[in-house]
Amino acid sequence: MYKKSVVSFLVLFACQLLLAQSSTLTGFPKNFTPQEIGKRLAYHFIDGRHDLYAAKYIHYAEVCTWNGALDYAVNAKDQKLIQLLKDKFEPFFDREKPLLPPMNHVDYNMFGSLALKLYQLTKDERYRKLGLAYADTQWELPAGANKEERAWADKGFSWQTRLWIDDMYMITVVQNEAYKVTGDRKYIDRAAKEMVMYLDELQRPNGLFYHAPDVPYYWGRGDGWMAVGMPDLLSALPKDHKDRPRIMEGYLTMMKSLKKHQQPGGMWNQLINEPDFWPETSGTAMFAYAFIRGIQQGWLNAAEYGPAARKAWMAMIPYIDERNNVTEVCIGTGKKNDKQHYHDRPRNAGDFHGQAPYLWCAAALLGK
């Protein structure tokens, strides 16, 4: 009798968790559904021009948006969109080949994640070869490496390490996709080792991250890269991996702090802990994504975090304008030990830094 009661309780508890999740991450009203929002933003991306570094190379923010559009297309089962996203990439094999980023910087190398995602959809070896080249050169020390780069490599880290928090998306995304393609644990081991080191070096006791060790401000999108990088890595990391407990600890600590700093309307501000700063869309979308993934994986309590994730999504959507551009997106921002610097940053409509995480959220809400 006792065992039956325990089993009944566990079944009831599991059903309650599923109900809590389904009631907060589904059933969105018209014009707020992930199907509608993802379609608007993904097809808008198809029609857009490339975003280039200094008019030379594909910008990482475009890669992030492309990845999001692909994830959305797959989860929405939109075969037309998948084909359009493939067609958009095809010129990189011939006339647009000069736009491919060189394999010599953390922001450039993450381009490989896009090719590796496309390989998983198509099994076209051209994507695999291109993507793995970006993943491997992130750890292959070049002949002209400087002293600092050699020091990182000698410790088993990427020579591109620089202890900027956005690295924990840029490095982990390409290594993660390489692991999915090859099954070779060296790729996921690299990503996990790097993540643990960054957590130990940069995470503050409150779970958040300064923009840099010498810049004591909790910049929204900066923290967003960590908030996205951790659940994406944890989703692929083997259950028995030695670094999994440390990364999970860092993730859960950050999520708890983010929930406390969410504004009453559902957004997060340009500086997370500054209530007088303006609501910023890219960081908000990244934090919403981190909540959604955690709820879906069972790492976060659905009853506690589900309403916060839903509130964020509902607050985000009105910031999309009639041209399908996300507004109130902080432009690319270098570190500066000046609070006013963050307050006064220009805001771009349609900036890929904002389009990307909105697509990530739409794709995640359609996934599992």
UniProtKB/TrEMBL annotation:
Single GO term (MF): hydrolase activity
Signal peptide, first to last residue: 1-20
Keyword rRNA-binding: no
Keywords: Hydrolase, Signal
Superkingdom of the source species: Bacteria
Short name of any one Pfam family annotated for the protein: Glyco_hydro_88
Protein name: Glycoside hydrolase family 88 protein
Organism per entry: Niabella yanshanensis
